[in-house]
Design a protein that fits this description.
The chain has 168 residues and is α+β, with helices and mostly antiparallel strands. Helices cover 31% and strands 22% of the residues. Helix 1 (32-51) runs antiparallel to helix 2 (60-79).
Length: 168
């Protein structure tokens, strides 16, 4: 095979001409939609149980289903808090918390606790060609407060990956 026959093509998701805009992270408040559905189904089950309690087709299982669906609905409403801090806002909070100029950073959404409170996990590296420091900052997705942070010297050795000339 000659060099002229070898071609390289970008994957579909990396084609710049098809860029549609920044990624919008789904909001936690979407959990309220299934909660409304569960609550509606619970009301229907309760009405069926109350109206047709004497029917051989309706028994206590319908009432148990209504209670379970209502519990899921309450949980969905409680956990469906509005995400007020996006990844850019969380990055700003994290940069202020670590106290060093940041080069590369990465944000990940996670949830904590029984009530699934949204929290951002931000991994940051200092702004040198071979970062001297790194930090991990947890930022609350609702209030924007720093939950926890860890800043330490970067133990990774990247000297084998760098060019012989320093990056300016």
């Amino acid at each position: 095979m000659s060099d002229a026959e070898i071609t390289d093509e970008l994957p579909q998701e990396l084609k710049v001409s098809e860029y549609v805009g920044p990624y919008l992270f789904p909001n936690n408040s979407r959990r309220r939609i299934p909660a409304i559905i569960y609550l509606s189904a619970s009301v229907v089950c309760t009405v069926v149980w109350a109206v047709a309690a004497e029917s051989p087709l309706v028994n206590g299982g319908i009432l148990a289903a209504a209670i379970a669906l209502a519990a899921f609905a309450v949980y969905g409403f409680v956990c469906g808090k509005e995400l007020k801090i996006d990844e850019s806002g969380a990055l700003v909070v994290a940069v202020a918390a670590v106290g060093f100029p940041v080069g590369h950073a990465s944000a990940q959404m996670g949830w904590r606790g029984w009530f699934s409170r949204p929290a951002w996990r931000i991994l940051l590296y200092s702004n040198e060609p071979q970062p001297d420091q790194r930090g991990l900052v947890f930022v609350d997705g609702i209030s924007g407060e720093v939950i926890d942070q860890l800043v330490q010297p970067n133990p990774e050795d990247w000297t084998d990956l760098s060019d012989s000339a320093p990056v300016q």
